[in-house]
């Protein structure tokens, strides 16, 4: 075992001891630290590489949809400076505690909205994505909530997956659907609530689309890619996952994609006949 790997193992052991249930080891090179402060929660996903810590930083993704674009950039700059000030040293603990400090000093009342997509999900024809402020309780939808279709659950090695689908034509309707889902305490406390949407704008002959990983790196982008492949129109899909304590590896992405397709098919978004297994939630 080389020196970098030894130091990585030591860092993982230390983080596991410090953060306990807030630390989720996905595999020997990937883990997530959940940072909870007051009413908000952020997720720091870290991917280790052969250069870390002696020659380079780890790859990380920060999931914090309640932060504005400017706030995310400010926090990213802070984390970059921490790395530069500690070259050659393990820095995940320092990053985690700096994120906690940032959240402690955050004034949510002045927080501006953001799309919260950790994976780059481009819009079509250069249309600028509008901001969604979904998890900020002070942000109330101004439209009625569309009907939501919810699939039956799927379980694999104690991890549970469930899909939700709704027809939407505006960002306000997306916000209304997500807020409605989060009213369900079980869904609100899911380990991940990943989503993707595509809205057709006929007056501009373009599409409005975006996604959110909610801490499951690249999951939102995969879901959005599936929506593009099946040419979904005016559709929002959410997949909830409750982690069961056993790592699924790449299988988790297969299940997320399958639940996305299942929600699309059973809800009728793909104009296919719906089986009787799922249920519709009235607004």
Describe the overall structure.
The protein has 283 residues and is an alpha+beta fold. α2 runs antiparallel to α3 and α6 crosses α7. The strands form 2 sheets. Strands 5, 6, 7, 8, 9, 10 and 11 form a 7-stranded antiparallel β-sheet that branches. Strands 1-2-3-4 form a 4-stranded antiparallel β-sheet, covered by helices on one side. A hairpin with a 4-residue loop joins β8 and β9. It has 7 helices and 11 strands.
Give a topology summary:
Blueprint: H1 3-19, E1 23-27, E2 30-37, E3 40-47, E4 59-63, H2 69-85, H3 92-104, E5 148-150, E6 154-156, E7 159-167, H4 171-182, H5 185-188, E8 192-201, E9 206-212, H6 219-229, E10 235-242, H7 251-267, E11 279-281
Helix pairs in contact: 2-3, 6-7
In a few lines, what is going on in this structure?
The protein has 283 residues and is of the alpha+beta class.
What is the SS-derived class?
alpha+beta
**Termini separation (Å)?**
56 Å
Q: What is the CA-atom radius of gyration, in angstroms?
A: 19 Å
The proportion of residues in beta strands is 15-25%
Order of helices and strands: HEEEEHHEEEHHEEHEHE
Task: Summarize the main sheet.
Answer: 7 strands, antiparallel
Percent helix range: 25-40%
Shape: globular
Low-pLDDT windows of residues = 109-131, 133-138, 272-276
- What is the number of beta strands? 11
How many helices? The count is 7
Mean pLDDT: 81
